[in-house]
Amino acid sequence: MDIRILDFVDGARAARGLAVIIDVFRAFSVACYACAGGAARVIPVGEIAEALRLRSEHEGYLIAGERHARKLEGFDFGNSPTEIERADLVGKTLVHTTHAGTQGLVNAVHADEVLTGSLVNAAAIVRYIQQHRPAVVSLVRMGHEARVRCEEDDLCAELLAARLRGERLDTSSVRERLRTAPAAAKFFDPAATWAPARDFELCTEVDRFDFVLRLRREETPAWLECIKIGHRA
User: Fold this and answer.
1) How far is 133 from 129, CA to CA, in rounded Å?
2) What is the share, in percent, of the chain residues with pLDDT greater than 70?
3) Among residues 220, 230, 223, 212, which one has the least CA distance to residue 18?
4) Angle at 140 between CA 227 and CA 153, to 5 degrees
């Protein structure tokens, strides 16, 4: 298995084989909590206008998103797993746009298959890849605003790559390691009401979920399909 580590939107465009688009703080943690909360579909989009259009055209659609980490005006939710955890999403469709993560999904056009990447379902991602045995795996770290590498996405890629190589990586210190990461500062800033401290806890619950989110591009708009992958190890 050829494991490639790539970065940002250019990395998503260069991704081949099975691509895992990684955004730990917070896009693809949010998507996992939405699916775990019963959302029927999560539709990732690149543009704010597209999210607003989809909501206007489809009664009952909800929209979540951020730019520069802050909730967008007129949106139902920010990019916060805490908000999503508390919401009633059962049977509903959530349209999601972010500064980094969803940009990677919509640009991974040359990959054969696309998954979201986060710590909360890392073990399930590895099991899925092991079951499907792609020749090439592209791990795309979206980083801070898709332009600067960040410790949390680097760590997630490191964990996935190590497990795919059959190596055991100790995850007991993940929270301690990431608590001082630059991108985590907002979670502990009382003024950053759009990034509650619980977001940090939720995003760093390693291997909490036993499913992957696979981008279904054969439908328009593309959406994230939740595929259960056995029991957590």
Assistant:
1) 6
2) 98
3) 212
4) 90
